[in-house]
Structure formats: structure tokens, C-alpha cells
Design goal:
The structure holds two protein chains of two kinds. By secondary structure, chain A is of the alpha+beta class. Chain A has helices spanning 3-16, 18-56, 70-78, 86-95, 130-133, 146-150, 160-167, 216-222, 246-260, 272-315, 317-325, 330-366, 375-402, 405-408; strands spanning 60-65, 99-114, 117-126, 138-141, 155-158, 176-179, 182-190, 211-215, 235-240, 267-270. Chain A has two domains: 3-53 and 278-408, no CATH class; 67-265, no CATH class. The relative contact order of chain A is 0.20. Chain B has one domain (37-64, 80-228): P-loop containing nucleotide triphosphate hydrolases (Rossmann fold, 3-Layer(aba) Sandwich). Chain B is built from seven helices and ten strands. Chain B has a six-stranded mixed beta sheet with strand order 6-7-8-3-9-10, with helices on both faces. A four-stranded antiparallel beta sheet of chain B has the order 2-1-4-5, with helices on one face. Classes of the chains: A alpha+beta, B alpha/beta.
Chain lengths: 412, 239
């Protein structure tokens, strides 16, 4: 019944002591702002990680040959391992029940040239279906077709970085580029991809934008192995239909390869999804810590409110006495003072929300940290600030309500 | 006896000051006040009249004895019931007015009605009406700081009247006013009494007490005399 009056009284108090109210709110303002900013930084990091792993395919298992020295290579060959081969890939597809697609690739790093320009690129020979299970978008032209693969044609698709280095803004499609001693025709250009800045599991970090894709058949025909004992292919990417079969399938793949390689562990298995989950878990702890620190500043803000409310109650003893004399019950006085502290914390909370959003945008704008504000973080921070107002306003309000009317009405 | 508005029997109030030091503020008070009476309670400071006023006004409870208000034993009530009693039955008028400085005159008068749960529209209407009864209708939007002492006390009287309480309880109502304004306030009290209100004035000033129809004197916590006023001072309208 008297909520509107209480709110009016509280707002009146705020505007009467503008500077004091502002100082009181400061703790809440910074608390809310830091909760929002911290959570937005955490969310930004999460989204960045997801994007990174999405490129590797969340339903994929990647089998990659270990980088072995000449001596090590000789040793595994002596122990009968043939190294990764197209036969391995076919075997996996045939035996593992949850695997629906498999692609193989081999690589060599070499100079790719057009006219007087030259750029160091990784030339990747791939089997058909490569873009179906790896997250590649074609910007111009088209990706390699089955016909080109079967026909062992001398065609290539350029990564965005290589295309830019060789052709600038001009269209490379239809042009001939030279790699090694071979001339290949450009049939497509890929869209730009997220640049890996750190190693993912056993996969070395490299810029996927400098890759050049050609049919694996062509690759094996035209580019002789760099070392005599080198394996046929460097990597097998296995697509699993259901992501909850990833672990099971990876165990099965290990068994298959173990048998085929005579127990030689000359390969690594990377499951991007598992790495993502693990990274997520680590980040959760980190986020929790950040959130806890921000929450502490909210609590400190609450103590500030309590402090000023205790002083306000002292100051207004006479007013409380008058209200009690004309019929206010204890709970009316309680409600009035709790409303007042909640109004302070809500006002501080709103300013904090605005500041927090601004800070997140500033962080994104001036640093290379990605931030992302989710609605729930704003709601959490704001709700928390209101709760702080109620909790820390309770004690001063209780004090006010318990003043004896007889004494407070004559308080000078 | 049964038609008494207020009936006090064997009432005492003691304060334990710690140690063996017990102060008997009121001892063995017996008092009955009927509807429509105009009573003054007089006594020097320290006589216990303020303690009596606190108990009469339901601000405090007696140590022993009974205080019946319209048959209800106030000494048995809890804090909420006492608040409600003050709200409905007691109209306080204080020496220093005790208005809330941030509220306008009409908002001050509305306050008791707010605590009584009266809806805003009716509140405003009744408060304006009460201000009219003390000739302050045009000042309703002024803050106490913009009003003279006499006007402030009249706002306080309007606030006391607005809930149509059982008694008007005035504590040194002219203590902060000059003599001319004091007479005006006493004139207003006279009119309110004529209209049927029960009025109790607590004062140390015989002048103020002389307007009442019944005079009670307190000394050392006991009623020393309780008699009709034979020389009622007639308040006249001053121009």
C-alpha cells in the first residue's frame, strides 16, 4: 500500500544527498560492472575456443603421423610399420561401425609461384569429401571434384592467404601457378579462416590460410617423397556420426592401427572435441575465480550501503519517532529503510550494467581480447546487486524499527 | 464509570536505573476521563506528567496497573496493536510540532492515513478537509519551513484530527509559540472541544491549563488534585 511512498521517500533521500549517494553506490557500480566485464571476457574466450575447434571438426578424430627423425623412421620401418597409408584409412572405414567418412591427406611445404611473386605454402594432397567433414568455405570457384581426383588432374585450390600474396585483389581462378616443378591450374579460392596461434593437442600451430589443396592422386604422382622411407600419407581425418561415440571409436581406431603398424606408435590421435571439453573445464575454474573476485567487490559495495544506512537511521531518529507516534508499525519502518537501501543498490546496479557493457566494448576495441555479453550475466549481476541491497539494508532497517518511539520522538 | 473513554487504575511506572536505584515516575494513579472532556494535566517538570502522557498516548506501557481505553486493556497490547491504537485513537500535538520537513503540509496530514491503509485519493481528500478545519486550506502545498510557528502547529493539529481519534493529546502545545499565537491555538482547542472532541493538554503553564474544564495536578508521581475548573478562561476570537 505504501510502496510508492517508500520509493518516493528513498528517491528524495538520494537526490538530497547526491554526492553521498554516489559514493555509497560506487561499490555496487564497480561490482556489477566487473561481474559483467569478467563474464563477457570469459564468454568471449569460450566462443573463440569453440570456433577454433569447429575448424577441426567437433565430430572428427584426427590421426597424424609423428614427426620422426631419419633414425627413428628407419627403426619403425625395421619393425615392420609401413607408416600411415590409404589402406589404413580404408581399413578404419570398413571396420569401425560409427565412422561414416574418412579423408586422407599428405603434405609438402614448398614455394608457390605466380608471375614474379612467390610465397611459401603447404601443399596438401587430399581425397574427395575433404570439405564435407572439415569446416572449409569456398570464396570463389569450387573445391576439388571427384572427377578431378579420379582424373589425377593438375588443379589446385588456394587458401585465402596464398591467393592474396600471389594475386592481390585480382581473381586467381583459371590462372596457372607453379609449385615445385609442376604447373597447376587454380580452380577455387577458400574463404579466410581463423588463424591458429597455439598448438592444439599434438597438432602444430600453422596458418591454414597459406594451404594449397590439390587432389591426393595428383600429389602422389607429381611430388616425389622428400625422404625415401616416408609414409604414403601424413594425416587421416575420421568423421564419427555421433559425438558421444568419439571415445569408443578412437579406442577402436587405435586397435586397428596398432595391428596394422605392428605395435609401432608412429602416429598421434587427436580428438578436438575432447580437447575442447578439457579446455572448457579449465576455463570454468578460471571464470569462477574471476566471478568470485567481482562478487567480493559487490559485497564490499553492500557494506558501504550498510554503513551509510546505519548513519542515516541515526540521523533520522526523530523522523522515525514521529512516524511511530502517528501509527507506523515496526514493519512499516523496516519496509521504508529496506526500500531505501534497495533503491540505492538498484540505481547503482543500473549504472553498473551500463558501465560493464561499456567496459566490455572498450576491451574488445582496444585489446585483442574477444568479449561477448550474454543476457544472463547482466541479469545475474543486477539481481545480485538487488540482493545485496536487501541483505545489507536489513540490519540498519531493523535498528530503525527497534528504536523506542518514546525515546526517538524526543531525540535531538 | 462504564461510559468512560479512559479508565486508569492502580497504575505505576518505575524505571530501574541500575544498582538499587529505582525511580518511581508514577505511583498509584487512578483516573477516568469521559468522552468529550477537556482536561489539563499540570505539574512542574520532573513531576511525572510526561511519563503519564507517554502512557496515555500508548507510546509506553505501565509497570503495573491497568489502562483501559474504550474497555481495551492497553497494558496487555503488543507493539503492533499499540501502533494501531496510536494511529486510530490518539491525535498527538507536540510542543515542537514534529512535522516532517521534506513533506508538504497536506502530505504531513496524510501520513497517519497512509499507515491506516487509506487509499491515496481518499487520503488526499480527508487531509485537505482537515487542513480546512484549521484554516490552512490554501497552505496545503507549502513545506513546514515556509510556514510560521502558529501555522505549523495548526498543520500538526490537522494531522492529529485527520484520523478522527478518540482523544487529542497535546504536550505543551504553545511552548514554542509567542503569546498572541498561543491564544489563537487555545481558541482552536476550544472550538474543537465545542465540536465534541476529547482533549487532554499536558502543560506546566497555568495559563494554558486554565482553558480546560477539568484540572489535574501531579506532584512527585502522584495525583495531588483533580477538580473541575471553576474559572474557565474563555478563549475569545482575536482579530
Amino acid at each position: 500500500m505504501q510502496y510508492t511512498e517508500n520509493i518516493q521517500i528513498a528517491l528524495g533521500g538520494l537526490t538530497d544527498h547526491k554526492f553521498r549517494s554516489f559514493l555509497t553506490m560506487l561499490g555496487i557500480i564497480f561490482g556489477v560492472a566487473s561481474v559483467i566485464t569478467m563474464l563477457s571476457i570469459g564468454e568471449g574466450a569460450k566462443r573463440e575456443a569453440i570456433a577454433k575447434y569447429k575448424d577441426l571438426g567437433v565430430n572428427n578424430i584426427i590421426v597424424r603421423e609423428k614427426n620422426l627423425s631419419d633414425a627413428e623412421l628407419e627403426e619403425v620401418r625395421a619393425r615392420f610399420s609401413p607408416g600411415l597409408s590409404l589402406a589404413d584409412a580404408e581399413g578404419i572405414l570398413a571396420v569401425a561401425p560409427d565412422v561414416d567418412r574418412v579423408v586422407s591427406q599428405s603434405e609438402q611445404t614448398m614455394e608457390v609461384k605466380f608471375a614474379d611473386k612467390s610465397v611459401r605454402s603447404t601443399v596438401v594432397g587430399v581425397t574427395p569429401g575433404y570439405t564435407d567433414i572439415l569446416n572449409y568455405a569456398v570464396r570463389e570457384g569450387s573445391f576439388l571434384t571427384n572427377a578431378q581426383y579420379d582424373g589425377r588432374l593438375k588443379v589446385c585450390v588456394l587458401g585465402a592467404g596464398t591467393a592474396h600474396a600471389l594475386f592481390g585483389k585480382a581473381s586467381p581462378v583459371g590462372q596457372m601457378v607453379k609449385m615445385g616443378d609442376q604447373w597447376l591450374e587454380v580452380v577455387g579460392v577458400l574463404a579466410s579462416k581463423t588463424v591458429f596461434t597455439e598448438t592444439v593437442g599434438e597438432l602444430a600451430a600453422r596458418d591454414l590460410n597459406t594451404d594449397v589443396f590439390i587432389p591426393l592422386t595428383t600429389f602422389l604422382d607429381r611430388f616425389p617423397r622428400e625422404r625415401l622411407l616416408e609414409s604414403e600419407i601424413r594425416q587421416i581425418t575420421i568423421h564419427v556420426a555421433e559425438s558421444d561415440k568419439l571415445m569408443e571409436t578412437s579406442r577402436l581406431v587405435t586397435q586397428i592401427l596398432d595391428r596394422r603398424h605392428w605395435g609401432n606408435a608412429d602416429y598421434n590421435i587427436v580428438i578436438p572435441y575432447e580437447l575442447l571439453k578439457q579446455e572448457e573445464k579449465e576455463r570454468q575454474i578460471y571464470n569462477f575465480l574471476l566471478g568470485a573476485i567481482a562478487a567480493i567487490s559487490l559485497i564490499v559495495g553492500g557494506i558501504g550501503i550498510m554503513n551509510i544506512m546505519l548513519a542515516t537511521v541515526m540521523e533520522r531518529t526523530r523522523e522515525i519517532g514521529i512516524r511511530r507516534a502517528i501509527g507506523a508499525r515496526k514493519r512499516d519502518i523496516m519496509a521504508q529503510f529496506v526500500t531505501e537501501s534497495v533503491v540505492i543498490s538498484i540505481t547503482g546496479g543500473l549504472i553498473g550494467v551500463v558501465l560493464g557493457i561499456t567496459l566490455s566494448l572498450v576491451v574488445t576495441l582496444f585489446t585483442d581480447i574477444t568479449t561477448y555479453i550474454r543476457l544472463y550475466s547482466v541479469i545475474i549481476a543486477f539481481t545480485f546487486s538487488v540482493l545485496v541491497g536487501i541483505c545489507f539494508g536489513y540490519l540498519p532497517a531493523k535498528n530503525a524499527a527497534n528504536l523506542k518511539p518514546v525515546d526517538s520522538i524526543r531525540y535531538e | 464509570m462504564n461510559n468512560s473513554l479512559i479508565e486508569i487504575t492502580q497504575l505505576s511506572k518505575t524505571y530501574d536505573m541500575g544498582g538499587n536505584n529505582v525511580v518511581h515516575a508514577l505511583q498509584d494513579i487512578n483516573l477516568a476521563i469521559s468522552q468529550g472532556e477537556y482536561v489539563s494535566i499540570m505539574g512542574p517538570s520532573g513531576s511525572g506528567k510526561s511519563t503519564l502522557m507517554n502512557i496515555l498516548g500508548c507510546l509506553d506501557t505501565p509497570t503495573s496497573g491497568h489502562y483501559l481505553f474504550r474497555g481495551t486493556d492497553v497494558s496487555q497490547l503488543d507493539d503492533d496493536a499499540l501502533s494501531s491504537m496510536r494511529n486510530r485513537e490518539i491525535g498527538f500535538i507536540f510542543q515542537n510540532f514534529n512535522l516532517l520537513p521534506k513533506l508538504t503540509a497536506v502530505q504531513n496530514v496524510e501520513l497517519p492515513l497512509m499507515y491506516a491503509g487509506v487509499p491515496l485519493r481518499e487520503r488526499r481528500q480527508r487531509a485537505t478537509e482537515a487542513l480546512g478545519r484549521v484554516q490552512l486550506a490554501e497552505r496545503s502545498e507549502h513545506h513546514p519551513g515556509e510556514l510560521s510557528g502558529g501555522q505549523r502547529q495548526r498543520v500538526a493539529i490537522a494531522r492529529a484530527l485527520v484520523t478522527r481519534p478518540g482523544i487529542l493529546l497535546a504536550d505543551e502545545p504553545t511552548g514554542a509559540l509567542d503569546s498572541k499565537t498561543s491564544v489563537e491555538i487555545m481558541q482552536l482547542f476550544h472550538e474543537l472541544h465545542e465540536q465534541g472532541n476529547t482533549i487532554i493538554v499536558i502543560t506546566h503553564d497555568p495559563n494554558v491549563g486554565s482553558y480546560a474544564h477539568r484540572q489535574i495536578t501531579i506532584h512527585d508521581g502522584r495525583i495531588s488534585s483533580d477538580k473541575p475548573n471553576e474559572n474557565i478562561r474563555l478563549a475569545k476570537t482575536h482579530s
